[in-house]
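Fill-in record for Regulatory protein, MerR.
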Amino acid sequence: MDVKVCKNCKKIFQYIAGPEICPRCKQLEEDMFQKVKTYLRENPGESMHVVSEETEVSVTLIEKFLRQGRLEVSPDSPITLTCEMCGRKITSGRFCSNCKGELTNHLNEAKKALSNQKSEKTSAADTREKMRFLKSDSIRR
């Protein structure tokens, strides 16, 4: 466990895992999330600025909730996000479904390439001569 400084309130806290914010700020953020979620459930067609004004939660934080995939808006909503790779309109997260698939394929290819390199190294190591050890009781003087 580390001791870190909270990115929001600048207080020192014992960091375990997750975002580098203290438990108090994490709880405040969770409370704001619940407020936004409830408001959007009751008012599904509102813009991000109206939601921000009504809930007193910053637009940046609302966008963060959407990017994390914790909130999702309807496709006809005025609240919009764009895919970080292609710029297509999305309702939640960072990437559209096409780009997610493309990223998954690239990662799988990289994984295969790394496993092939590893297997080539181990097979090359197997062909080399190996050092042999003698048991001490079998050595005669």
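KEY FINDING: The radius of gyration is 26 Å.
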